[in-house]
Amino acid sequence: MIDLRYGHVAYCTLSWDDDYGTAMPVPLPVLAWVPDLGVFTYRAGSGSGSGSGGAVAVAAQPLSGPAAEPPAAKTAADLSALYQRFHAAPYWLRSG
């Protein structure tokens, strides 16, 4: 999701191919680009409440197909809570 006001990626949505259509918004700062693999990785358990600390999930493909819907917009309060949950520094508080 792009924050047009600040020109930053506000968050990414990780999803799992399961029976429940599980998806989770994740702040970009908790993802790391792995150029050799061409994917982003996420350290699960880093404030997400998942309890699976140390596990690495890979997010490699964009949403596609007729069932893919864009994520709902987040309010400023929702976005702030999301960054707090993941212990990520909010981009909107950075200077310059």
Describe this structure in words.
This protein has one domain. The chain contains one helix and seven strands; from the N terminus they run E-E-E-E-E-E-E-H. It is globular, with a radius of gyration of 14 Å. A three-stranded antiparallel beta sheet has the order 5-6-7, with no helix packed on it. The chain has a two-stranded antiparallel ribbon with strand order 1-2. It has a two-stranded antiparallel ribbon with strand order 3-4. It is α+β, with helices and mostly antiparallel strands and 96 residues long.
Average pLDDT level: 74
Strand tally is 7
Main pleated sheet: 3 strands, antiparallel
Helix content: 10-25%
- The run of helices and strands is EEEEEEEH
Coarse structural class = alpha+beta
Strand percent estimate: 25-35%
Number of domains: 1
Low-confidence sequence ranges: 48-55
Radius of gyration: 14 Å
Shape: globular
- Terminal residue distance: 21 Å
Work out the helix count: 1
Strand order of the largest sheet: 5-6-7
Brief sketch in words of this structure:
This protein is α+β, with helices and mostly antiparallel strands and 96 residues long.
List the keywords:
1 helix, 26% strand, globular, two-stranded antiparallel ribbon, 10% helix, 96 residues, 3-stranded antiparallel beta sheet, alpha+beta
